[in-house]
Specification:
With 224 residues, this protein is an alpha+beta fold. It is 23% helix and 35% strand. It has 2 domains: 77 residues, no CATH class; 130 residues, 3-Layer(aba) Sandwich (Aminopeptidase). The strands form 2 sheets. The chain has an 8-stranded mixed beta sheet. Strands 1-2-3 form a 3-stranded antiparallel beta sheet, with helices on both faces. The mean pLDDT is 94.
Length: 224
């Protein structure tokens, strides 16, 4: 199995096992970290284990290898096909403006920016998963990006977002380039996930050297 196959499960059972909840064939990240959840194998039998893990009206955000097929007792809250892109080769450069490293003291600002721009699941403790970098204008956080899933040899760049009032300034590319440099300094390869219909973002990532590996099917389910 490639390290990026069933990548959430791989993260929860290897480099990020300290954030995992659940036993047997289902795992999820601790709720305040992120809603991402995974099966060891995406077969019908694991949905009963998933129901036990999330509880009544609980939700789970999954990456599936094929489109979700409706099952009794579950409703779809959201989701979309995602491109899983990997950067085997890329350039690095010195940032043209001040980048700040974000931490617990920035959590409220990070959650607010993610809620406004919707880059994907982001919670009060998501920043604990890896390095998060930002750009501030005065006291206001206007752009950020960070590390989310980590598996052997690979680290995911995630939560790439910029306040709508500050788009078009190249902030996302600056932050991603710095993250890519740091990931490579550890002997790892950067990867990411992006909605396949997000043409603007895909174009930026291709410019930075990312290439599509596979399509995964993101779905958020709620137990009825």
């Amino acid at each position: 199995m490639h390290p990026l196959d069933n990548v959430i499960w791989q993260a929860l059972t290897t480099r990020q096992a300290q954030f995992a909840e659940g036993t047997g064939p289902v795992r999820r990240f601790q709720r305040e970290v992120t809603s991402l959840t995974a099966f060891e194998k995406p077969d019908d039998a694991v949905y009963s284990a998933l129901a036990d893990l999330v509880g009544p009206r609980g939700t789970a955000a999954l990456f599936l290898p094929a489109p979700y097929e409706a099952r009794d007792g579950w409703s779809v809250v959201g989701g979309a096909p995602l491109l899983e892109m990997v950067c085997e080769n890329g350039h690095s450069s010195e940032p043209a403006l001040e980048i700040v490293e974000l931490g617990p003291q920035d959590s409220a600002d990070m959650v607010a920016l993610a809620a406004l721009t919707k880059p994907g699941p982001f919670g009060a403790r998501t920043h604990e998963l890896g390095t998060y970098l930002g750009i501030r204008q005065g006291s206001k956080l206007i752009s950020m990006a960070g590390e989310r899933l980590q598996v052997p040899g690979y680290t995911e760049i995630s939560a790439v977002c910029t306040h709508p009032d500050h788009l078009g300034q190249g902030y996302a590319g600056i932050l991603m380039t710095e993250l890519m440099k740091r990931i490579r300094s550890r002997g790892e390869t950067p990867f990411l996930h992006v909605r396949e219909d997000n043409v603007r973002a895909v174009g930026l990532y291709e410019k930075l050297g990312f290439r599509n590996r596979v399509t995964v099917h993101y779905v958020v389910l709620r137990k009825e």
